[in-house]
């Protein structure tokens, strides 16, 4: 099985332009705001600058203002965007909007694309994706979905409680997963609904305090209390929501990996610069064996993560499910990125712990990725199951 790792020349050019844009425009803003954008003016100014630089929305089709990159192309460009915590926000490729755009391009009806995808791709609005629920509802096991949608005259009534809904504060709409048949635990029977933010029966209950803060719009608890939506709000077909979720979740796991790999590289660069400059016990840190080992291990983790991401993206571009390759890449990358940032902070010593560099912020941001988009333990369980089933055939 051969995998071509060389990016298309156009992709390579876009990646280089993205790298320049992030370093010259985004990084200064990130440092000024401590890695967390809390105002619309920061978001809109960065996105306007990305449009002017010709690097905005690399993932969506040209008809919606993007560059139409496939998954392998995204891997190269998203990594460069991820070199800053605010890079994905600037390029309009941050979660959950990026995954929602991907889903809408594939599943939405033409009128839904005009109403929801086009303004989302342009950065005129933001969105959220409401699947996760408080225990014992949907989480690592989506089949536990408890939120229900019942038919009413002219549409559907949604009732349920969601939580950890990223970006819900200020989102113009959410894509809500609700059970339209069966009961919690059943592997089918879910439907996706497009719910506008001005629906009075969709209520933002609270912001959930979390370790990470850089994902714009926070993580919220959201209540659907007799939330009525028209038939035109159904995204795709009724009872096909779990199948559509896989259309979104596999690629979204990889784009998360791409973005966080950029932060791993940034952390390594900070650490190497410090190791070359800092002298202790008569030597530069970079000349000490224990520091060299950490620098080398970081390079190994970064290179291995990139290779696994590219292999998974190659399979997705071929139209394969990529279930095993994306699970492997997500599990390894989430843990490798943590190791890289942690080692980088250790190399920098007290400087790494301080607010003078952003390594402490990066550490807090990357830690939840071992839980988001499926905990490492869930992915390992699924990986092992697939291997055992294949061997038993």
Automatic annotation (TrEMBL):
Database matches in SUPFAM superfamilies: Acyl-CoA dehydrogenase C-terminal domain-like, Acyl-CoA dehydrogenase NM domain-like
Family: Belongs to the acyl-CoA dehydrogenase family.
Keywords: FAD, Flavoprotein, Oxidoreductase
This protein's name: Acyl-CoA dehydrogenase family protein
Cofactor: FAD
Enzyme Commission (EC) number: 1.-.-.-
Gene3D superfamilies according to UniProt: Acyl-CoA dehydrogenase/oxidase, N-terminal domain, Butyryl-CoA Dehydrogenase, subunit A, domain 2, Butyryl-CoA Dehydrogenase, subunit A, domain 3
Domain Acyl-CoA dehydrogenase/oxidase C-terminal span(s) in chain numbering: 239-387
One function term, GO molecular function aspect: oxidoreductase activity
Keyword Membrane: no
Protein's organism: Pseudonocardia aurantiaca
UniProt subunit comment: Homodimer.
Highest taxon above the source species: Bacteria
Domain Acyl-CoA dehydrogenase/oxidase N-terminal: 14-123
Pfam hit, one: Acyl-CoA_dh_N
Residues of the Acyl-CoA oxidase/dehydrogenase middle domain: 128-207
């Amino acid at each position: 099985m051969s995998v071509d790792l060389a990016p298309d020349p156009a992709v390579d050019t876009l990646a280089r332009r993205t790298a320049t844009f992030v370093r010259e425009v985004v990084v200064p803003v990130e440092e000024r705001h401590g890695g967390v954008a809390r105002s619309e003016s920061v978001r809109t100014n960065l996105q306007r600058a990305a449009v002017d630089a010709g690097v905005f929305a690399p993932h969506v089709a040209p008809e919606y203002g993007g560059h139409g990159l496939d998954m392998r192309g995204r891997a190269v460009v998203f990594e460069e965007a991820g070199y800053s915590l605010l890079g994905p926000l600037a390029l309009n490729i941050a979660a959950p909007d990026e995954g929602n755009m991907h889903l809408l391009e594939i599943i939405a009806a033409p009128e839904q694309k005009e109403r929801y995808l086009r303004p989302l791709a342009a950065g005129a609005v933001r969105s959220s994706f409401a699947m996760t629920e408080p225990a014992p509802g949907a989480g690592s096991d989506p089949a536990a979905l408890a939120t229900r949608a019942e038919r009413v005259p002219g549409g559907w009534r949604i009732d349920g409680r969601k939580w950890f809904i990223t970006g819900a504060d200020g989102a113009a709409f959410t894509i809500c997963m609700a059970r339209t048949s069966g009961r919690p635990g059943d592997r089918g029977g879910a439907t996706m609904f497009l719910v506008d933010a001005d629906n009075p029966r969709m209520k933002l209950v609270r912001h959930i305090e979390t370790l990470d803060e850089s994902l714009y719009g926070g993580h919220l608890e959201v209540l659907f209390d007799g939330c009525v939506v028209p038939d035109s709000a159904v995204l795709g077909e009724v009872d096909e929501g779990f199948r559509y979720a896989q259309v979104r979740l596999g690629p979204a796991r990889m784009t998360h990996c791409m973005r966080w790999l950029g932060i791993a590289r940034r952390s390594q660069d900070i650490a190497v610069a410090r190791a070359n400059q800092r002298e202790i016990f008569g030597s530069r840190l970079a000349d000490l064996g224990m520091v060299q080992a950490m620098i080398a291990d970081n390079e190994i983790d970064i290179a291995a993560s990139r290779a696994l991401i590219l292999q998974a993206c190659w399979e997705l571009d071929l139209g394969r499910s990529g279930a095993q390759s994306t699970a492997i890449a997500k599990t390894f990358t989430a843990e490798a990125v943590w190791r890289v940032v942690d080692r980088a902070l250790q190399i920098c010593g007290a400087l790494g712990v301080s607010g003078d560099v952003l390594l402490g912020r990066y550490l807090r941001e990357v830690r939840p990725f071992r839980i988001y988009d499926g905990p490492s333990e869930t992915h390992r369980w699924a990986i092992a199951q697939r291997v055992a089933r294949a061997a038993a055939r």
